[in-house]
Here is the input.
Amino acid sequence: MSETIAQMQKKIIELKKQKDICILAHSYQAREIIEAADITGDSYKLSAEAAKVGNKNIVFCGVHFMAETAKMLSPDKHVYLANMGAGCPMAEQMEPEMIALLKAAEPDRKVCAYINTTAALKTVCDVCVTSSSAVDIISKMEDKKILFIPDCNLGAFVQRACPDKDIKLLQGGCPVHNSVTANEARMAKEAHPGALLLVHPECDPRVAELADYVGSTAGIMSFAKKSSAKEFIIGTEISIAEHLQYECPEKKFHILSKKILCPNMKLTTLPDVYALCQAVGTSEADKNEIVMDDELIRKARVCIDEMLRLG
Ligand code: 13P
Ligand code: SF4
Here is the structure.
């Protein structure tokens, strides 16, 4: 007979102790994975915490660029991604060669990369940001001229918050958040007239304009928890509405659209995490290990360290 969720979670907790494993899970992961994890949060929190983990092994539940960031911050540890098929299409949208050319054409414009980028792309960037740290970090930069890649919606959000900066944008972004239209946002507001609309800055600026709050995953969660309002429409990955409903049963959470479901974030299952924890310490885990050469880590880390220094 197959094991129940609770039995698997119990065994994962035992395996973590036996094999010195720390599980990091992004907030877009399913509830049963969040419950078995040691550290959960948005991409900024996970990057900052990855640098401090004391365990020999890190099992990452999220998408590839996040595990890669954890490896760069903890190069001496074994970092594993629970499901190796979980990528982020936005991270792959731009080639380092193209950004290097743009940099050479305008050397006084600093390149600011959203953390949702590959390590190879990070090597040609000056500073990295996450959605929760972008405005803070860019406003702290002395430079006025910035090329923001790859997400033009997040870049436009930063430009609105930092009007003194000259931010150049390219056409990139998250296909999941960007799929929602302003019309759908208006319809959701009409369907739930008493609810506040909270959206992620990866959404179209015309959707963000209709929102009562625009912020990162962590920002949305903390706004909803602290707010005296009782009803919310959540304009980010649908698992956030589920987690908030679980944590705040006295409030009501609606999803903005069924389309904001990240298929990559949803690839990881609790059985994947269980199987990987069983495999850690054997060659079976090799296929899930993030392996990067030292030179790539050294070059790509520069912009991550700059983010942690300014953030
Ligand atoms: P956060 O920076 O809010 O964690 O978002 C990461 C992400 O992939 C959003 O789509
Ligand atoms: Fe990438 Fe969008 Fe999924 Fe976030 S929600 S991991 S940006 S595809």
About this structure: The chain has three domains: 5-86+265-291, 96-174, 177-255. The two ends are 49 Å apart (CA to CA). Residues 42-43, 116, 130-132, 174, 202, 216-217 surround 1,3-dihydroxyacetonephosphate (ligand 1) (CB under 6 Å). The longest strand covers residues 21-26.
